């Protein structure tokens, strides 16, 4: 049973890796496509241009992958920041307790009772449109889910023997948090990280779609779909294929994240019994 | 308390964001730049936007406590009226989408649990995994293209009453069902392994009876929690869908107001929205309280 799951995870991981490699090298692979060619405007999908070309003669397939590179990079950075903030806040709040913890719970309630889209728009209005303000808006909410998970994890292991032992030999609070607590928490955080990259890629595409995020002339999936929408009657491939590419990536990220979650859960119980 | 804090944060955020509401509004009304400074000042005086942050917020708060949300800077109509006229669209969208997602999610989840590891189950799981990660705005455009343009069985967009709500609520409903399918399936499978189900079998209850009378009650709690969070995300999250289909809903109006810094409208809407979230959470807690004796016990022990 366990071997079968491992095998599944390996296959899924390999597919994701290949997809990610394609994106990383998209500049080399597809750089030629993201150039304006006035002689091949708005062509239907064909063998040369599998996803067709847009009204400026740019290859939709190339642009989709180049756009995916930007989305993935932004999503990755945003989630990295969120994870760092979330883990630190969550650990600190659970470990020290008291006023800090109460403050955290209050903050969490406030943020959760705000329709998140609305606050995102407020932030975007405050900072103006663009990549930077979109990242700020994403991070403003993103850290919360990490913090909640980290908090619940730390609360579970806070009074474990190895923590008490570390205290007994005179480790400082910081040492305990970074040496003993974070490594234990990070295992449940990693699958979440994978899942959340998928989420934020969708979020970035959504905001760019509304015109708040990435601005033209950058290639970005949400933007491509928005531009394609104005040609909905004549050139449907302009929005169908970029969305398809986005969906493939986010499906793979979700699937791998899920499998990682299952896998690490199994190991959890095995490791504890071995210890 | 929370709602107040939220409204104040929104107020402060908007106050410090660049752009003067009086100027923006006059530009919208006259249709272009080239305004004279004293005209803008006079207009700001009328609107009361030339004071500091705290007095402005205090004014709003005092009025709000008298159940007066003020008037829109842009249209001059009371915020409450603006809200009411748009609420019907957004609310019916949310209700239809939720009902559909419940229908799809719970029934597919149950069937998939029944035929565990058979072809149907595998298919459903793949569908729900894909469904979860497909961007809903893309789904919206593709369905618009397919059903409204190619097959011509639904109106493309706009304000045609019930008919124009069908497609958007289907999209939102399908998007919301993905999580429900998963959670229903997992909960049923977990419950099937519990001792009480074995006992019921030993007692000789038929499968449908076991299911209807006992398992359904146990799985309803997580489903209610999930539906509540779905509805909450629908309150703000239908903005994109409303935008695509050109529906005259709350989200669409709110975006417009944020762009023009129409303070009373934004505040009023955000305040009502967060109040709705609080009320929804309360309802969901009350329902679980009514359903689960264990939660009742906890409350009494406190």
Question: What brief labels describe this structure?
Answer:
heterodimer; A: 275 residues; mainly alpha; 10 helices; elongated; B: 302 residues; 14 helices; 80% helix
- Taken as a percent bin, the fraction of beta residues of chain A is under 5%
Mean pLDDT of chain B, as a whole number? Answer: 73
**What is the number of beta strands of chain A?**
0
Order of SSEs of chain A? HHHHHHHHHH
Mind describing the biggest β-sheet of chain A? none
State the largest interface.
A-B, 41 and 45 residues
**Roughly how many Å apart are the termini of chain B?**
23 Å
Q: What share of the residues of chain A lie within helices?
A: over 70%
State mean pLDDT of chain A (0 to 100 scale).
76
Distance between the termini of chain A: 23 Å
Range of strand content of chain B: under 5%
- Regions with little confidence, pLDDT below 50 for 5+ residues of chain B: none
The shape of chain A, in one word, is elongated
What is the count of helical runs of chain A?
10
- Main sheet: strands, sense, barrel of chain B: none
Class computed from helices, strands and strand pairing of chain A: mainly alpha
Question: Helicity level of chain B, as a percent range?
Answer: over 70%
Write up this protein.
- The complex is a heterodimer of chains A (275) and B (302).
- Chain A is built from 10 helices and no strands.
- Chain A has 275 residues and is mainly alpha-helical.
- In chain A, helix 1 packs across helix 10.
- Chain A is elongated and about 75 Å long.
- Chain B has 302 residues and is mainly α.
- Chain B has 14 helices and no strands.
- In chain B, helix 5 packs antiparallel against helix 6 (119-133) and helix 7 (136-150) runs parallel beside helix 11 (239-245).
- The longest helix of chain B is centred in the N-terminal third of the chain and has 36 residues, at 79-114.
- The model of chain B has no long low-confidence stretch (mean pLDDT 73).
- The A-B interface holds A 109-110, 112-119, 121-123, 125-128, 198, 202, 205-206, 209-210, 222, 225, 228-229, 232-233, 236, 239-240, 243, 246-247, 250-251, 253-255, 258 and B 2-3, 5-6, 9-10, 13-14, 16-18, 129-130, 132-135, 137-138, 141-142, 144-145, 149, 232-233, 235-237, 239-240, 243-244, 251, 254-255, 258-259, 261, 270, 273-274, 277-278, 281.
């Amino acid at each position: 049973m366990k071997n079968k799951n491992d095998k599944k995870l390996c296959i899924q991981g390999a597919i994701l890796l290949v997809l990610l490699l394609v994106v990383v090298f998209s500049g080399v692979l597809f750089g030629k496509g993201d150039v304006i060619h006035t002689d091949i405007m708005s062509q239907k999908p064909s063998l040369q241009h599998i996803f067709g070309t847009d009204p400026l003669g740019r290859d939709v397939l190339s642009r989709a992958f180049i756009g995916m590179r930007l989305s993935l990079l932004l999503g990755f950075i945003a989630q990295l920041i969120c994870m760092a903030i979330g883990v630190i806040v969550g650990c600190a709040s659970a470990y020290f307790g008291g006023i800090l913890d109460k403050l955290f719970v209050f903050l969490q309630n406030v943020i959760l009772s705000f329709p998140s889209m609305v606050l995102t728009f407020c932030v975007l209005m405050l900072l103006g449109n663009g990549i930077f303000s979109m990242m700020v808006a994403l991070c403003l909410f993103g850290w919360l889910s990490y913090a909640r998970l980290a908090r619940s994890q730390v609360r579970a292991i806070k009074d474990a023997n190895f923590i008490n032992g570390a205290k007994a030999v005179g480790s400082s609070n910081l040492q305990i948090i970074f040496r003993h607590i974070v490594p234990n928490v990070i295992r449940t955080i990693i699958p979440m990280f994978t899942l959340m990259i998928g989420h934020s890629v969708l979020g970035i595409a959504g905001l760019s779609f509304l015109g708040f995020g990435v601005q033209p002339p950058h290639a970005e999936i949400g933007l491509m779909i928005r531009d394609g929408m104005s040609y909905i009657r004549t050139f449907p491939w302009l929005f169908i294929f970029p969305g398809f590419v986005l969906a493939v990536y986010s499906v793979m990220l979700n699937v791998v994240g899920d499998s990682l979650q299952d896998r690490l859960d199994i190991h959890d119980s095995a490791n504890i019994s071995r210890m | 308390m929370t709602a107040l804090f939220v409204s104040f944060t929104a107020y402060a955020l908007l106050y410090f964001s660049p752009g003067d509401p009086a100027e923006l509004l006059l530009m919208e009304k006259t249709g272009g730049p080239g305004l004279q400074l004293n005209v803008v000042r006079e207009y700001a005086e009328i609107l009361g936007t030339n004071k500091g942050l705290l007095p402005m917020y205090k004014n709003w708060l005092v009025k709000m406590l008298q159940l007066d949300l003020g008037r829109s800077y842009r249209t001059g109509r009371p915020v409450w009226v603006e809200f009411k006229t748009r609420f019907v669209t957004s609310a019916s969208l949310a209700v239809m989408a939720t009902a559909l997602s419940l229908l799809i999610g719970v029934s597919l989840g149950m069937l998939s649990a029944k035929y565990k590891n058979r072809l149907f189950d595998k298919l459903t799981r793949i569908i729900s995994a894909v469904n979860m990660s497909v961007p809903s705005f893309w789904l919206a455009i593709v369905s618009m293209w397919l059903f409204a343009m190619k097959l011509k069985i639904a109106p493309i967009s706009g304000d045609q009453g019930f008919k124009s709500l069908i497609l958007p609520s289907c999209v939102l409903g399908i998007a919301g069902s993905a999580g429900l399918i998963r959670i229903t399936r997992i909960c049923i499978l977990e419950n099937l392994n519990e001792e009480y189900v074995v006992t019921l079998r030993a007692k000789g209850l038929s499968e449908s009876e076991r299911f209807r009378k006992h398992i359904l009650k146990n799985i309803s709690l997580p489903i209610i929690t999930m539906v509540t969070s779905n509805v909450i995300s629908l309150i703000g999250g239908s903005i994109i869908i409303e935008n695509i289909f050109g529906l005259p809903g709350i989200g669409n109006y709110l975006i417009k107001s944020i762009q023009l810094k129409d303070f009373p409208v934004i505040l009023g809407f955000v305040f009502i929205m967060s109040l709705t979230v609080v009320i929804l959470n309360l309802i969901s807690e009350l329902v679980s309280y009514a359903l689960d004796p264990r939660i009742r016990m906890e409350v009494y022990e406190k």
